[in-house]
Amino acid sequence: MTVRLAFDSSTPRASVALLQDDQVLAETRLQSVGGRHNDHLLAQAEALLACCGYAARDIDELVVVQGPGSFTGLRVGLATVQGLALSLKRPIRAVDSLRALAFQHGPCERPLCALIDARKQEVYAALYYWRPGQPLSYVTPRVLPPAQLAYQLPEDVLLLGDAARFYGEALATAGGRQCFAGLACGGPTAAAAALLVHAQPDDFALLTAACLRALYVRASDAERARQPR
After folding, report:
1. Cα dihedral angle (224, 174, 102, 214), rounded to 10 degrees?
2. Domains (ranges, CATH) in the chain?
3. Which of 9, 55, 196, 212 has the smallest count of CB within 10 Å of its CB?
């Protein structure tokens, strides 16, 4: 039996979940303007543990969505998990937000394109095909304009995520051809990330707090400003 406390702050709708193996004991979600989750994640984690009758010492592993997504949200989420890992002396498993979103949808005969709004009229995107028990990456996470992505998608693809709703028209009409056969909205969740870890533990190494890194995919505005022109 493995008890996991999971966090996702890759989008403005952050979530925290407590799981025992593949059973979701409790999950909470919060909306935070601008992706600034601050101390809310830790407070929600403490509330979940208390609600389910668990203590922090009962946690075996921590799970965190490492990106891509909101730069600020990811920094806050990873810092929260690093602090917990150090204080509790527990390992961390880091999960790609787009893969968690594809897993969250469930088995599908069509290819799945997971999308997260990257702002600046761009999306984070990755393409997956379902194989027994898990979505396998076909096109790794990248950031690009929706119209450019449309030309790279198979015609029967199913678009996933809130960004599919925001940019669905551009994706469907770019180049004058239909690019998707369906639409499923939503975002990655902490529970989905932990369930993916439970289903495929060998895919997610046990990390120390010092080894945890965000998956940003693109450089921040500050990093781009420092680049030579």
Report:
1. 0
2. 3-97+188-226 (3.30.420.40), 106-184 (3.30.420.40)
3. 55
Would strands 112-117 and 157-160 be described as parallel, antiparallel, or unpaired? Answer: parallel
pTM of the model: 0.90
Residue 120 zone, left/alpha/beta (φ > 0; ψ -120 to 50; rest) = left
Structure tokens of 42?
A: 């830790």
Would you call the peptide bond into 68 cis, given omega within 30 degrees of 0 as the criterion? yes
168-211 per-position pLDDT tens digit: 777 776 654 445 555 666 889 999 999 999 999 999 999 999 99
Give the tens place of pLDDT for each residue, 25-64: 999 998 764 445 556 899 999 999 999 999 999 999 999 9
Integer CA distances (angstroms), 82 to 75, 104, 191, 226, in order: 10, 25, 19, 28
Q: H or E element: which one contains 135?
A: strand 134-144
Report how far residue 10's alpha carbon sits from residue 98's, in angstroms, rounded to the nearest whole number.
Answer: 10
Both tokens of 124, joined, read 């984070």
